[in-house]
Automatic annotation (TrEMBL):
It is found in: Cell envelope. This is ABC exporter membrane fusion protein, DevB family. NCBIfam families: heterocyst_DevB. It comes from Gloeothece verrucosa (strain PCC 7822). InterPro entries: ABC_heterocyst_DevB, UPF0194_transport. One of its GO terms (cellular component) is cell envelope. It comes from the Bacteria. Keywords: Coiled coil. Residues 28-98, 309-336, 401-460 form a coiled coil.
Amino acid sequence: MERFIIETTYEQPLSGLNLPTLGNNWPSVELEQLLTHLKQELEQGRQLLSEQEEELTEYELTIAELEEKLRKAPDSELLTLEMELVKKRQKKEKLAERLTLKRRYLQMQEVFMEQYRELLDNKPFNPELIDQNSNLDVKFPGFEAPEPLNSSAHTKTPKKPWWRWTVIIPIVGLLVGVVVKLPQSQLISQQLASSLALSPSSSPVASNAKPTLKAVAALGYLEPKGEVIQVSAPAMMDGLRVDKLLVKEGDSLKAGQKIAILDNYDRLSAALRQANSQVKIAQARLAQVLAGAKSGEITAQKSKFEGSQAELEGQINTQKATIADLEAQLQGEKSAQIATIQGLKAQLDNATSDCQRYEFLYQSGGVSQQSRDSVCLKQKTTLEQVNEAQANLKRIITSRQEQIQQAHANLQRTIETVKSQINADKATLQATAQVRPEDIEVAKAELESAKTAVDKAKADLKLAYVTSPKDGQILKIHTWAGEMVSRDQGIVELGQTSQMYVTAEVYETDITRVKVGQPAIITANGVTKQLKGTVDKIGLQIGRKNVLGTDPVADADARVVEVKIRLNAQDSQRVAHLTNLQVNVIINPSN
């Protein structure tokens, strides 16, 4: 049984690979289709290679321009230009390595295409082409030809070549896939791993030999110890503004140090002063109760009591006189109106008699119609005056009676009010003359209540200060003096940059090879030297990938586990100002 070893690593030799001779019974049409497909794949690979060669040329021109700028730049711009130059050189080197790999694989594709052409032309298989290209250093493991179904130890029938295409076709497809779609993140991980003399974590085991643990590559980001926290106003105080901002970006703070003062500070300070005043009043009241009443106070209270009684009698007499006046006015107006009505009724009787007489004369022709109408009109006028006078009499009676009733009600209210005042003054007089234990207890309770109000006002005033919850450094300011505090962003971002960590997102398939205490090496654009750290904590749940590289075909929905890596002290200081910087991580498992 023949065996073919397939590996997707870049450091295994091709020497020894001997493609099996294909049978002459393969259909020419299908062979032509296969050759056409390989040709298309090869053209696509060449087109991609050409585009990336142009991109490499652009990088070289950009690097030359940056080097020229660096020679002429002032000191203030040197650091920025140097960092940009390092980043461009790193990208150029990575691209150059990728191009080298792709050229080698394209060359290998051309070798296979030549073999298929010979088959199509019925030419003999030429293994020398493979031997001539054995320096391509590529080995393809993984496929093993099955034993023929009718093979036997007692027969010497040669093995049929029907399965050989099942080996060759996947090999070519694998080559094309590696050349065209090799993710950039995998290349970066392999380059980092090769610098440590380690195999990439994604390389499968190639044979039955005892496997060795591979380095784990992952993307991650820098963050301070305990992560970055947002410091904001208390949750129950919405709608506040920052009155004074007491820090600036980069300041180092101690736990409890003030960061900002909110605009409710003046109001809460006034509330505290008022609460302190109430304490003093309650203390004076208690002292007064304990001292007892003075003789002058008792005399004054007695005088007040007697004055209330005299005031009651005076008010009652005044109200009664008002009622008598109203009743007298009612009687006089009523009598005058009745007399007026009686006079008008007498005039009405005379006018009625005259009207009847003239009506009779008019009927008999003794007077004219005009004379009759003139006399009868006076009768009607007098009747209207009588009706009006009677209505006025009713209105006068009703109005005066209402006034009298109102005066009686006022009198009754006055009596009740003054009596209540007299009773209160009497009780006060009696209380003043003695000190009761109940009064002392009430005064003490009032004092305790005032002191509690002071404690509450002090606690409320503390909420007007925004303080640092722990030691750390101000990384970013979101809310400045005069601005409304945002519930989403808070006022500042704070982090303990004295100790930096890397949060690496390790694929769920690699997490079993990561242990606490393993060493790790971290690289990043903008950081010229490698960073070193130790695995400090491994996450307990699997989530979606948050850190995305530059590879457009990378799986954005990959499932990962967060691994915390503690940087050593020296490297922590180097990157203390680079929170959230994306990094490349290599974790070296122990054997």
